[in-house]
Amino acid sequence: MSTSGKSIVSDFYTSDFFNENANVKKHLHPEMELFWNARTGYSHMRIEDISEVTSEASKSFESVRCEITHLLEEGTNVTIRFTFFVSTIENPSEEVPVAHFVAIWEIKDGLMYKGYQMSQPAEEDQEAMISYRGVNL
């Protein structure tokens, strides 16, 4: 029985991959590529880069939580829209939104293979945050 693409993508983003690096290899194809456009510029990443970035981030964050607002699947492609919330090591009792993301993933061999992602810093404006509350799973 195969796992749906939505489950694969959702399971990855909601896993504790920042602190449990094994989740990176569990969900990402060994030949994966991520094409990421952010406010800070463009990045082309492979699985080793993802492992390195998440390992470094785990040194600053006590916890990272993904709140998914949209998760759509068509054929072998899954689109996800989400916000990462973090609590820092310095202030573990306060959780703050850090960034909003939209990503489209191609699924291959039951793993996330090619990703096209855009992100922007989370806004503190109430109306902007409300737009990230609707869930369409």
Overall description:
- The protein is 23% helix and 49% strand.
- It has 137 residues and is of the alpha+beta class.
- Strands 2-1-6-5-4-3 form a six-stranded mixed sheet.
Q: Concise description?
A:
The chain has 137 residues and is α+β, with helices and mostly antiparallel strands.
Question: How many DSSP E strands?
Answer: 6
Element-by-element helix/strand order: HHEEHEEEEH
Distance between the termini: 21 Å
Unreliable sequence segments: none
**Which strand order does the major sheet show?**
2-1-6-5-4-3
List the helices and strands and how they pair.
Blueprint: H1 5-14, H2 22-27, E1 28-38, E2 41-46, H3 47-57, E3 61-74, E4 77-88, E5 96-108, E6 111-121, H4 126-130
Parallel strand pairs: 1-6
Antiparallel strand pairs: 1-2, 3-4, 4-5, 5-6
Defining traits:
single chain; 137 residues; alpha+beta; six-stranded mixed sheet; globular
